[in-house]
């Protein structure tokens, strides 16, 4: 009788407590091979020239340079300055509903590359692939962004180019091969 009474009291107390807790979201840990398989799953090795032809020269070069120089926000695109080993370049993120297309121009306005970002599955933010093409529409690289702070980059043949974690790039053996540098505004 005493045990039944204690059980009843505990049951009443437990069921009267407010329900609380944290919903756990599972995430997938990727290694270089898993990321490669996912990144190359739907790869397109050549895109039609019609997707690139009208972007061989930046028709909005002055507006894009002013957006970088004066930190202006443009309604239909985002402009970002990049410092490459032997030149300056800028990228324009053309905002679309499904996926995003980036155009990278040399500072003179001539197209260097096109990158097409895929839409992550199941409405999540990550992971997603980005396919990079030269001005002729040929695939040059594939990246697989697994989180905001981690990305695998592959050459078109599937070999690992580098693995970015935060602002540091590593080679296939885990050796540091580079650091990211953010540029705040257009240099004159």
Figure out the total of helices: 3
Low-pLDDT stretches: 1-26
Spatial order of strands in the largest sheet = 1-2-3-4-5-6-7-8-9-10
Shape field = globular
Question: Roughly what percent helix?
Answer: 10-25%
- Calculate Rg over CA atoms: 24 Å
Biggest sheet details? 10 strands, antiparallel
N-to-C SSE string, H for helix and E for strand: HHHEEEEEEEEEE
Give the total of beta strands. 10
Secondary-structure-derived class:
alpha+beta
Average pLDDT number: 79
Percent in strands? 25-35%
Q: From the structure provided, what is the oligomeric state, counting identical versus distinct chains?
A: single chain
Keywords:
188 residues; disordered N terminus; 33% strand; alpha+beta; globular; 10-stranded antiparallel β-sheet
Give an account of the 3D structure:
The relative contact order is 0.14. The chain has a 10-stranded antiparallel sheet with strand order 1-2-3-4-5-6-7-8-9-10, covered by helices on one side. The protein has 188 residues and is of the alpha+beta class. The chain is built from 3 helices and 10 strands. The model is unreliable at 1-26 (pLDDT under 50).
């Amino acid at each position: 009788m005493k045990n039944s009474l204690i059980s009843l009291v505990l049951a009443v107390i437990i069921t009267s407590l407010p329900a609380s807790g944290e919903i756990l979201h599972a995430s997938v840990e990727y290694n270089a091979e898993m990321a490669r398989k996912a990144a190359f799953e739907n790869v397109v090795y050549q895109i039609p020239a019609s997707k690139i032809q009208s972007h061989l020269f930046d028709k909005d070069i002055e507006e894009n340079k002013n957006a970088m120089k004066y930190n202006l926000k443009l309604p239909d695109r985002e402009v970002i300055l990049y410092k490459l080993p032997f030149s300056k370049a800028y990228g324009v993120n053309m905002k679309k509903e499904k996926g995003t297309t980036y155009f990278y121009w040399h500072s003179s306005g001539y197209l260097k590359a096109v990158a097409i970002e895929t839409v992550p599955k199941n409405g999540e933010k990550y992971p997603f692939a980005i396919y990079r093409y030269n001005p002729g529409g040929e695939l040059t690289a594939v990246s697989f962004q697994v989180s905001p702070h981690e990305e695998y980059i592959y050459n078109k043949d599937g070999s690992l180019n580098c693995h970015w974690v935060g602002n540091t790039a590593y080679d296939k053996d885990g050796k540091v091969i580079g650091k990211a540098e953010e540029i705040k505004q257009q240099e004159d």
